[in-house]
Design brief:
Order of helices and strands: EEEHHEHEHEEHHHEEHEHH
CATH class: Alpha Beta
Shape: globular
Number of domains: 1
CATH topology: Rossmann fold
Protein name: AB hydrolase-1 domain-containing protein
Strand content: 15-25%
Pfam families: Abhydrolase_1
CATH superfamily: Alpha/Beta hydrolase fold, catalytic domain
Helix content: 40-55%
CATH architecture: 3-Layer(aba) Sandwich
GO molecular function: serine hydrolase activity
Number of strands: 10
Number of helices: 10
Length: 254
């Protein structure tokens, strides 16, 4: 089943598969959507155990128009969108699988709507970013330097012009948030100790985008969490290592 639901003034696209009692919401990363980030989970997670909901946050994937706008509170806006979407779909309680920005959005949902969240699985998330990480973000601003493997799926979804413009806006937003400061920039650090859900934090040993200390920070400040390190090489777990990833998720959730 797929369709669109009006949430907070935006028509959000979703896909639903399976009929299991355990409901999962998949939360994609920056500029990601169901098509780019979670195809193996929608296709291969056990449909008798799980009801799996994939969605495209506003301005991403098939949740356009409107075009994506970035503000300092965009993670909190997307978290509210996720909760309201599930409410309109009739789901009061569910687990969350989120990566990159989606990990951050999922953590905020678990913190602010803890009565709705059963379990939480996150990878590639960061509750703050350092100046060194900001420099790294800026170094990958030019998408013409990306590999075709990384670039093509995004261009297929968005077209080159929209993707490039939106990616630049994402980088520029973090640059604006940091300002002239050389110190760390808070995203949602104060929310972590509010999370009550059992949490699995996954980190790859060769993750180029998110340093290991970010995953360890989440593990330290989410009181009911486990840290699974060196599972796979990088953050494309859900695609490149989907069988292993799905097995790990299944075991943790059930």
């Amino acid at each position: 089943m797929s369709g669109k639901v009006l949430v907070n003034g935006a028509n959000l696209y979703y896909e639903k598969v399976g009929c299991g009692d355990h409901v999962l919401l998949l939360v994609p990363g920056a500029l990601g959507c169901t098509k780019t980030d979670f195809k193996p989970q929608l296709e291969n997670l056990n449909r008798d155990k799980f009801t799996v909901i994939g969605w495209d946050p506003r301005g991403y994937g098939q949740s356009r128009p409107p075009n994506r706008e970035f503000h300092n509170d965009f993670l909190f806006r997307d978290a509210d969108d996720a909760v309201q979407l599930m409410e309109k779909l009739g789901f009061k309680r569910y687990s969350l699988l989120g990566w990159s920005d989606g990990a951050n959005i999922s953590a905020i949902v678990a913190a602010r709507w803890n009565e709705r969240v059963d379990k939480l699985v996150v990878w590639g998330g960061n509750a703050y970013f350092t100046h060194q990480e900001l420099v790294m973000y800026q170094s990958i601003r030019d998408v013409s330097k990306w590999s075709s493997t990384m670039l093509k799926p995004m261009v297929d979804v968005y077209g080159r012009e929209y993707f490039e413009e939106t990616w630049h806006n994402w980088i520029d937003m973090f640059t604006t948030m940091a300002g002239d400061s050389k110190s760390d920039t808070n995203l949602y650090m104060e929310e972590l100790n509010k999370i009550q859900a059992k949490t699995l934090i996954i980190h790859g040993q060769k993750d180029a985008m998110v340093p290991e200390f970010q995953a360890k920070y989440l593990n330290k400040h989410i009181k009911n969490s486990r840290f699974y390190f060196q599972l796979m090489e990088n953050t494309t777990y859900t695609l490149r290592y989907s069988d292993r990833f799905n097995q790990l998720v299944d075991q943790f959730l059930t």
